[in-house]
């Protein structure tokens, strides 16, 4: 336990930052999980909107250095693959 006043203050700030960052990271993970569920179930109507929110969450996490920019690119690529696969499963209208 720190004794110096500034160190105590830093611990308080770190707890707030950690909580904020955890929320952002969870938002990113949840949006990716939603896309995975939509892709598995074959719902193509909602997937484009879900991809937009996932991209936004991933980009924000990378912008705030929660994840590396190349990790963000890899995650976005995976999301795009899932979206493409689910749209390919869509039956052709005749």
How is this structure best described in words?
The structure is a single chain. The model has no long low-confidence stretch (mean pLDDT 92). Helices cover 79% and strands 0% of the residues. The protein is an all-alpha fold. The chain has one domain: Methane Monooxygenase Hydroxylase, Chain G, domain 1 (Up-down Bundle), CATH 1.20.58. The longest helix has 37 residues, at 5-41. The chain has helices spanning 5-41, 47-63, 69-88.
Average per-residue pLDDT, rounded, comes to 92
Q: Report the CATH superfamily.
A: Ribosomal protein S20
Element-by-element helix/strand order: HHH
Low-confidence stretches: none
Radius of gyration: 18 Å
Strand content: under 5%
- CATH architecture, please? Up-down Bundle
Alpha plus pi helix count: 3
What would the CATH topology be? Methane Monooxygenase Hydroxylase, Chain G, domain 1
Helix content: over 70%
Shape: elongated
Question: Pairing-aware structural class of the strands and helices?
Answer: mainly alpha
- How many β-strand runs? 0
How many domains is the backbone divided into? 1
| N- to C-terminal distance | 70 Å
Please outline what is shown here.
The protein is mostly helical and 94 residues long. It has helices at 5-41, 47-63, 69-88. The protein has a single domain, classed as Up-down Bundle (Methane Monooxygenase Hydroxylase, Chain G, domain 1), CATH 1.20.58.110.
Blueprint of the fold:
Blueprint: H1 5-41, H2 47-63, H3 69-88
Helix pairs in contact: 1-2, 1-3, 2-3
